[in-house]
Amino acid sequence: MSKLRLGVVFGGQSSEYSVSLHSVTSFLRQIHADNYEMTLIGINKNGHFYLYNGDVDSIEHDTWENEETCVSCAWVNGGIMPLDGSNKVIELDCVFPVLHGKNGEDGLIQGLLELMNIHYVGCDVMSSAMSMDKEIMHILCKEAKIPCADYICLYANRENPTFEQIQEEIELPWIVKPCNAGSSYGVHFVNNKEEFESACKDAFFYDGRGKILVEKVIKGFEIGCAVMGNEEIFTGSIDEIEITGGFFDFEGKYEMKGAAIYCPARIDEKTFKEAQELARKTYIAMNCCGMARVDMFVTEDKEVILNELNTIPGLTATSRYPSMMKEAGIEFADLIDKLIELAMQRTIGAC
Q: Helices in the chain by DSSP H: which ranges?
């Protein structure tokens, strides 16, 4: 029986380029490689696509891009073609985009793959784009009666409310963050006007579409839930983040500075089940398929409130999504197989 022809895409132009390299390194070391005929496709920081034939260690140390191991390539219907004069097309049954942030989670790579008639792992164009934009996510989840933090959206090219006007609507402290970014880039805990102005400037820097959110700080702690599926939806375990700072920032997420993660979360059974149900409800409201990690808060009164949704969560062996699925009984390598299987079950362009 022929092996499934799997393309694995990594790198990219987003601020989360390094996160992608760490994710794909772990992914390649964990995958049941014998099950697939794999083609590695790297994207450098300038957006150039390469067929990559080197080793995993070079990806991990970001030394992968060189003439010996890389060949420029172009997408064609049904696969990818190296630009080496051979005119040979490498056909692909499915692509696993191990990309985070801009051009990876926002529906753009998904749209490219749909145009090329190639199956891909994860959410489709619409659900990826909606989930990436935190303002749109808030609007849709509010319509679905999913509890979220109070917020105001600010725009780079419009007249916005002043600090004082926002304060009349939302009590300090606030979280200021880009609408279209991940890994806590550009996210700030704000207590006063001086902090607000510098936070807005940085958040706008990281948002590619000129939108940022000012959100009310939820008094409590953060939890998450791994979700997987198309028509049938499976919710994994719940994890809990313990932090010493104002929020779970980049160093907390990837270097565990001032943060600890507990899986399963140290919450009672009732709150655990409520969180799984809210994660499931959010997944459905955002029209997700394949996979997503739903991040939430538990308040001091044990109310579960949505924070945000990640359609391509971190995929190292110790990342939150694989860890929650492992706690639910699915090992990382088996999880990869299942996600690819879910992608192949879908009609291209449909969740």
A: 17-30, 56-60, 108-115, 125-132, 134-143, 163-169, 193-206, 250-255, 269-285, 320-327, 332-345
